[in-house]
Design brief:
about 200 residues, seven-stranded antiparallel β-sheet, four-stranded mixed β-sheet, 2 helices
C-alpha cells in the first residue's frame, strides 16, 4: 500500500487504498448509511518475499493513527459445513467437475506465520455437477467410488498435511501469492505436492 487516507462521516471510519479504491469505498459507505469500516491490511503488488505492507506501516493523511494489524496465533478449525472443495477430472476426450466435502481441517499460526495445517477430505461425499441425467450421474459417482478410482470403501478419507508456505516474489494482484508444499495421501498412497 503506497498511501492510505482516513475519512470520517458520522460513525463511519474508512481506510482507503488510494490506488483506485477511493470511489468504491465512498459508494460502499453511502450504501450502508455511514456504518461501514474497511481496513486494508496487506497488498501483494510490488511486495518482496517476507515483506508485507500493513496498515500500521502506511503513510497517512489526516489526523489520528491506524490501528495496529492484529497478530494471529493459535489453532483455527475449519467450518466443515461452509467448506467445499471443487474438482475437475479430465481424459483425452472428456471432462467432469463437481465437489467433495472437507471432513475436518485446522491451521496453526504463530504471529501470522503458518506453523502447521492439516485437511481431511470426505471421499464418500464426492458429487458431480455437470451431468444432469440422474442415471448417468449416479453411474459416474459409483465408478469414482470403485476400486478403479478412489476405492472409497477402503479409503474413505484423503488427507493433506502442509509442510511449508513460501511467499511468491512474482505475484500480481489477483494471482496466488504463496506456494504451499506438503504431503497428500489418497488411496493410502502419500506423495509430496505443491501448489500456488
Amino acid at each position: 500500500l503506497a498511501r492510505a487516507k482516513r475519512e470520517q462521516r458520522g460513525a463511519a471510519m474508512i481506510f482507503i487504498d488510494l490506488n483506485g479504491m477511493k470511489t468504491l469505498a465512498q459508494e460502499l459507505r453511502g450504501a450502508v448509511g455511514g456504518s461501514l469500516r474497511l481496513v486494508v491490511l496487506e497488498a501483494c503488488s510490488g511486495a518482496k518475499p517476507g515483506v508485507h505492507a500493513s496498515a500500521a506501516q502506511t503513510a497517512l493523511e489526516g489526523e489520528g493513527a491506524l490501528p495496529a494489524a492484529p497478530s494471529l496465533s493459535g489453532t483455527f478449525h475449519a467450518d466443515t459445513e461452509q467448506s467445499l472443495i471443487r474438482w475437475t477430472g479430465r481424459n483425452l476426450f472428456n471432462h467432469h467437475s463437481g465437489t467433495v466435502r472437507l471432513a475436518e481441517g485446522e491451521i496453526t499460526l504463530r504471529d501470522n506465520a503458518l506453523v502447521a495445517a492439516r485437511f481431511r477430505i470426505a471421499m464418500d461425499s464426492i458429487a458431480c455437477e455437470d451431468i444432469s441425467d440422474s442415471a448417468m450421474n449416479q453411474m459416474l459417482i459409483a465408478h469414482l467410488h470403485s476400486d478403479d478410482f478412489f476405492d472409497v470403501a477402503h479409503h474413505p478419507v484423503a488427507e493433506f498435511i502442509a509442510e511449508s508456505i513460501t511467499p511468491l516474489a512474482t505475484c500480481t494482484d489477483g494471482t496466488p501469492n504463496h506456494l504451499l508444499r506438503g504431503q497428500f495421501t489418497l488411496r493410502g498412497i502419500t506423495r509430496e505436492i505443491e501448489y500456488p
